[in-house]
Specification:
The chain is α+β, with helices and mostly antiparallel strands. The protein has helices at 2-31, 78-103, 107-136, 142-174, 178-203, 294-297, and strands spanning 35-40, 44-48, 53-58, 65-66, 71-75, 206-208, 213-218, 225-226, 231-237, 242-248, 260-265, 273-285, 301-308, 320-325. 46% of the residues lie in helices and 25% in strands.
Amino acid sequence: MKRPSKIFASLALAAIMAGGVIWWLLAARAEGPPVLYGNVDVRQVDLGFRVEGRLAEMLVEEGDHVTPGQKLAVMDKGYLEDAVRIAQARLEGAVATLDKLEAGNRPQEIAQARSEVARAEAAQVNAREKFDRASAMTLDTNVSRQTLDNAKSDLRQSSAQLTHAREALALAEKGFRSEDIAVAKAQVEAEKATLDLMRRRLADGELFSPAEGTILTRVREPGSTMLPGATVLSLAMTSPMQVRTWVPESLLGRVVPGAKAEIASDSAPGKVYHGQIGFVSPVAEFTPKTVESPELRTSLVYRVRIIVSDPDPLLRQGMPVTVRIE
């Protein structure tokens, strides 16, 4: 009698478990994949020159599709080219000065200094002979005393000139001071940096596209005078194409980075785009930071970014889309 009851109990337990599994599967199927609503992300870049000047040429129109590195606009380069030439000339002058200091004095300059020494020596010999003759004279008149004083003064002057000539020869033979050469080297490096800066400013006279996209607005026209950073063009970036949507707190556990997504828009009925969740914001938006009640807790939303893997021209920025998370 006990055995049938045990069999009945086992069958009942198995039926309950099977029913629970079936109920869970039906509930999960009824719940279905999360469906979110958002827009194709608008990613706009304001482009401008990094130098001041006059806008000379615009190479694109509104609505043109551009690629990375494509030239978009050109600045009047006259003043920038003049600055490069000035910097180049100053660098050449600094290099010439450094070469002169490192090479030292020329042989002709040293020979000239030696000849000055020989001339000063001869002048001193002559002055000493005059002084000796004046000293041998009888100092009985004012004339003889004046002659001796003049001879003594000439001798001192000739000695000083000889000393000066000898020191000048020593300097010429030794060359320039190491400190002067160091200053000249520093000046050369400074002029090189100035030339590099002027060349970069000249290169910045051309505006290039930083990414693939579409020209939204021509803010300035040729002939406009602009300061650095002034907006010239507005570019809508089309690559990579991204969708921005929001997920409620109740579905946050089912929307995770890396999950696959299907994207549909009203402009292309029946066409499905594919993407992948790349970012889920860790911060809730549009609700108080402190949530107390279950009612407020359900209104929490988190920003989600989905990267579209197969975009086409029909998918435009700002377009509303429906996202189904696989």
